[in-house]
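Deliverable D4.2, example record:
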Amino acid sequence: MIRFFLSICFVVGFVLPASAEVDIKEVTSDAGLTAWLVEDHSIPFVALEIRFRGGASLDAPDKRGAINLMTGLLEEGAADMDARDFARSTEALATSFGFDISDDSLSVSARFLTENKEASVALLRAALQEPRFDQDAIDRVREQVLSGIRSDAKDPNEIASRAFDQIAFAGHPYATSLSGTEQSVAALTRDDLLAAHRAVLARDRIYIGAVGDITPEELGVLMDDLLADLPETGAPIPPSAEVQIPGGVTVVPFDTPQSVAIFGHGGIAQDDPDYFTALVLNQVLGGGGFESRLMDEVREKRGLTYGVYSYLVAKDLAEVYLGSVSSANDRIAEAIEVIRDEWAKAAAEGLTQTELDDAKTYMTGAYPLRFDGNGPIAQIMVGMQMLGLPIDYIATRNDRVEAVTLEDVQRVAAELLDPEGLHFVVVGQPTGLENTPAN
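Output generated by the structure prediction step:
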């Protein structure tokens, strides 16, 4: 019965009404750890989200992929439990753990019933502080990673993304895949994984969010039990990337009837005063699905693609403005020309008042739908902390969108959009496209 109840919790979540306020409390433990908490005692269930800043960007230069492999091993045995025993213990408690890695953070997600809180926290503590890194588990997970690397090498979308990253972030960890290469992953040892663990899991880079049936006092004790014994400091965060993207085209030959393109130029930081204006602008240009200008011009009017999108990417150490499109080899050149033309049109003219109003209506209406369960709310709160946003951001976010004016959009469009600076990485056998020498 407990497992059936918990499975409903995970699938359905605890949905907040669109008009509901998220009452966030800041909690500081005796050991000095800080978390944001939303108490909800209506159901005996807790969602806990922990994030360690740095992520895969903390890989040692000659050990690329170590942190990714280490993260994949965190639930493959801990303390006196091998991988099978750890899985059985998790299942017996009807508890769920998730470990994920990105360029900028290692994320830990935990979901557990109140009655199993202490045992669940003890199990998670073992995973975070006493991972076994048994050789059979290392070999098994390593092979899974290698299989993914081989698969990515045959995926046009992955090839395009990797090639664009090498151009945009040359010399920075962002320029290479966090999974590493076949050679780097094959060479990793258990000692490398222990070093990767020490590099990332440290107290000086922890962000915590909790939602559900737990009081501030209980959360303070939980944090200290779970995290206070971690090392105080980890590896230093790398410096910011120097994003230098020359305008032009890079063609990566690949045997496929359809070319895939990633395109973009420099972006805008999330703490920039004009960030929300840029979000509204992008919603109209390429972020709004079938309602966007790019989709209308490239797909609806000309039938050049099934989909074309643009999106702002603000990493911790770099900002880029990206887009993606796929088209037949003999039509991708035309698709690129249309995208450049729309980029130039938006840069010169901005948006219309109707487009601005419609974008703001959509963005403010869709925002409450993100809060569709305890887990998503915990994740959002951790993201807010990492960005340095105020604790009342959720209540004021839509006000920031509504405050964007047409004059703001015209100015930011002219400053941000650089049609001549767009670089397209095209993977396929495109007709009428050649590599453009770097500026």
